[in-house]
Every structure is written in structure tokens, then in C-alpha cells.
Amino acid sequence: MGIVLRVLLVEDSTDDARLLVRQLTSAGYDVQHERVDSPGAMRDALNRASWDLVISDYSLPGFSGTDALNLLQQQGIDVPLIFVSGTVGEDVAVAAMKAGASDYILKDNLKRLIPAMERELRDAEMRRERRRAHETVSERELAVGIERRRAEQELRQSEERFSRVFRASPAGIAITTAGEGRFVDVNDAFCALTGYARGEVVGRTTAELGFVQDLGEQADLLEQLRKVGTLQNVDLEVRTKRGDRRFVLASFERIELGGRPCLLSVMHDISERKRLEDQLRQAQKMEAIGRLAGGVAHDFNNLLSVIIGYCDLLFRTLPADAPQRGEIAEIRDAADAASGLTRQLLAFSRRQVVERRVLDLNAVVTRAERLLRRLVGDDIELVVRLAPALAPIQADAGQLDQVLVNLVVNARDAMPAGGTIVIETAPAVLDAAYAQAHPGARAGEYVSVSVSDDGVGMDADTQAHIFEPFFTTKAVGRGTGLGLATVYGIVKQSEAFIWVESARAQGTTFRVYFPPAAAGAVPAPLPRAVPASLAGSETVLVVEDSPQLRELMQEVLQVRGYRVLDAENGDAALEVARRHEGPIHLLLTDVIMPGMNGRQLADRLSAVRPDMQVLFASGYTADVLAQYGVEGGMHYLQKPFTPDALARTVREILSGPRD
Q1: pLDDT at 529 over 70
Q2: DSSP string, 229-291
């Protein structure tokens, strides 16, 4: 049962009277009321009973709110009178207040009624206390009155201190009714957290605001509070006025406020901490996949090199109409798919061996444009817009091609009925506010490339997962879920960052921001064209601990005219080189072998054969190779490779300028 409230209603409408009673009851009061609509009835009611509050309409047939106020004043009754009406303007309201009305509230804004009523009841009680103090004549009673006033003053000071702490606290604080969760008061930090103004919150419930999405979770919390009275450090997800998700660490305690059971809630915004935790989990996923990829890459890539190589050699020896060519093609396709997965895993985990050079981004896009047009098909228009005079960037040209292909393929697949893809380059300057709102970004100057489509778009939940490995929205068998994860890994390895903007049915834009190269840097020429002939007559020393792969490499080079020396490890290679009296034009060596590693072998042979070129080949990841001294700028062949890739790389090194 709530606090008893005796209310005299001066109102000619029974419906409006019921509405007022319902409003008071909803605030937890036990309302005892009487409705009057004439001077005589009001006078009888005032003489017959005592009242805590008078609520009066302003205009009644044959009677008015002003008459009711005069009647109350004539009888000398100190009871608050609040006008509640919807028929008059501001000037009348001001006049009524000057005449002695406690407050004036419009009927369409009844949420003000409870705060106004409680304020006036407190003021009336204080007036009565003062009168009682003045009426006493004894020194003892006077001393009691003084003590009471001192206590009241201390109470007011305490309330003021609480109010200052309440308002100034950096934590969001809310006071709600214990039953339905109706907000009684909130502080500025709560408003900043939720995006609501205080007036939009007070008087409404958490359910009406949609503040807590999981009503079942809210019911569980209330049940726990009913049992134990307090809860500490509860993780909650709440919704702001704009509909954004925020994560809070909340504590709750049941309190009494004005005789009513209420709930005190203190909330700390931990959304940024959650974001950092998500980034940490993403980094841990990348690290785990990187370790997995590095652990299997070497042996797996050796096997793939053998499978791919012998498939290509068989194609060369079989007639064009041989029925076995179909089966060999299936084996070759499966090996290519496995090789592609390995490369994607390495790219995502940022463990590819890369050759970062100063590049003209426009030149990279222009070179890739012909391939991209073949990828998108006839029902999609590809538009390329290149900003003039872009600053050069530093990246791996092959990886940039992979980024463009993956983003364009992703855009194509988002437009099953056709559409337009736009590739655009531009300079960009990002300020601190942008960097704060976009995790991973840093303020400064950038060179950007964007890929936009007008396809199906993505919702926020999908965008939160698109760069995760193996996440895909495509049907089973239509994608590996590594395309955008690969883009993400390459972008991070290039010390750039990527951002996506998308909405359902509004298309998608991916923007990649590259830091410009150092001042004065000149773009390097793009990779040389394939040599006209892959044949040669030079001497190549092949060092590989896998017998199958070593035999394949030897056969591929011998078929093209090279003289091939071979060895299974570093010590054997030194002995072969010692016995060979002629020149060794190229050392083609695995990096990680039993005993001496490839870099150590290259250093020892180069000391006695300074004119010898060196080509390293490995299936290990970049971070592992760096531990063995193989770094960017050295000639390197990533396993698995095709016979043509091996022959082309050897020919390019032997035909090109010496290092």
C-alpha cells in the first residue's frame, strides 16, 4: 500500500478526474479523492474534511479555477492548488500563478504533475512546521523548533551534497521505481551515455524507452535484487536514443525514496573496453591461424609443388586428345585450390614474404583494370576514377593486385542482378575525430583506394564479422570465407587500414588508406614482363632436402637447357661446388634444411664464387624466414610453384642486372 494522498478535484469531467487519479496512483500513492464542480460543493468539502492537495480545472460551467482559488484563500486553508487544464494560454497561466496558484500544468503534459505535486507538498509541510514552531511559547518548545530547523537545514545540506555528487558523477546514475522501472531522476552522465535529455527520461519506464533490450534479463535482475537487495558489476547491453548499442558495467541497490521502494542504478560505460577486447580476440584469431599456417606450410607446399609440377610435365608429354588429360586437369585444379587456400591463410595472418616497394597506386589500378573487367562480367559496369598527382605509397604490388581482385569479386557477388562497381583513388586527410571514431585509424595524410557497389549491402552485425577468417554469407560451396580476411591481413601488413560503409539495400564501399611513402621517394617500375624465352644454358646448383621436389626442379630446368647440379643439404652442396670446376651461375636453395640452412650456404658459397646469383625457395612463413636471414629484397620463390614459375624466375634473375 502506498502513501495516502487526500485530493480534492475541482473538475466537471468524470473522465478527466479518473485520468488524474490514475496518474497519481501510478506514482505509488493511495489516492482518496472527492470531485466537486460548484462553489457550494467545494465549500462543503473543505468544511467536511482536510485535504493534502486541490487539483482544479481552469474553466468549468458556472464556476472557474480562479473562483476555486479565491474560495480556498478566503477560508484560510494552506493547501496547494494546482491548475490542470488544456484550454488556456501562457498569459492566463502566469496570472494564475501570481494570484497564488501553486503550479499550472497542461492536460497533455501530465508527466509534470507528480514532480510538481511532490514539491508543493514538501513546501506546504515546511510552512506548517514553521507555523507550529511560531505558535509555541515555551522555551522548551522553541528549543525543539530550533533543533528541528537545524536538523532540517542539515538535511537540506545533505540533500544538496547528494545532489551535487549525483549531478557531477562521471558514472551514469538513475533512480527508478522498483516495480515498473519508471525513472524518477537521472544525472547528466546518464544522459550523455544514452543520448536522451533528462525531460525525455523522467516519468517513463525502461520498457517504454527500449533502454534494456533483453526484458528477460531485466526480470532476472529484479528477482535477484528482491532477494539480496544489491548487485555489483553486472555486464549489460543497453540501447541509446539513436538505437546504438552500448555496454555498461552496472551496480544496483534497493532504496527507499519518499516512502516508496526504488532502485538506484550506477552505470559505467565500458563500450571502449569491449571494443578493445574484441580487437584482442581478433588478433588472437589471426595469431592462431598464423601459427597453424606456418606449421603446415613448408611440408604442405613441398607436396603441392611436386603435384603441380608433375601435372604440368604430364600435360607436355600427352597428346592433346589423350583421355588422361581430364583426370590430370582435375588433380591440377585441386592442387591449385589447395595452394590458393595456403596463400590466403598466410596473407590473413600477415606471414607472407612481401617485397614492399615505392609504388604509384594509379599505375597499379590501371595495370589490374583489364583483369578486373574480365572478372565482373557483362552485366556489371566497372568505372575507374583516378585522382591526378597522387603521392606514392610503399607496398607489395602483387598483394595490391590481390586486394583489388578480392574486393571487386566481393562487390560482384553482392550484385547478382548486375549493377555498377566504382574503383576510385584519392588523397585523404584524416583528423583526430575521425581516428577516434574508426578503430585502427590514425590521424594524418593518406592515399586511398575505394571499391564501391550498389548491391545488397550489409547490416551492422554482418559488418562486425566480415574480416574474420572463414566467415561468409554465401551458400555452402560458394566461398571459403577467406577473401576479405586476406584483404585485412594484407592491409595490416602494409601498415595501412581498411574501413567499410554499408547498409541493407544501399550498397557497400570499402576504403583502404595507405600512408604516403617518404618525401622524395620515386615509384619503382612494376614487375618486368615475362621473358620471351625461358630456356637457358647456365649452370644451376639446386639444393633441396625433399628428394621428390629436388628431382622435379632438376627435370624442369634440364628440359629448358640448363646444366643442373643437385645436393640434398648444405654440406653436400659445398662438396658439389668444390668439385665443379666451371662457373655456377645460380644457387637455387631451400631455406630450412637439416644442418646448414640456405642463408648460411649462400654466404659460404658467395665468398668463393662472388659472381653467383642466389634464389631462395621455401614454404615457410615470413616471420620464420626472417629468423634465418631471408628478408625483403632478396630473390625468393614461394612454394608451391609451377614449373613455369620456376623457369620464369630463374630466367629473370639470370637475365636481369646483378644485385
Answers
A1: no
A2: SEEEEEEEEEE-TTS-EEEEEEEEEEEEETTEEEEEEEEEE-HHHHHHHHHHHHHHHHHHHHH
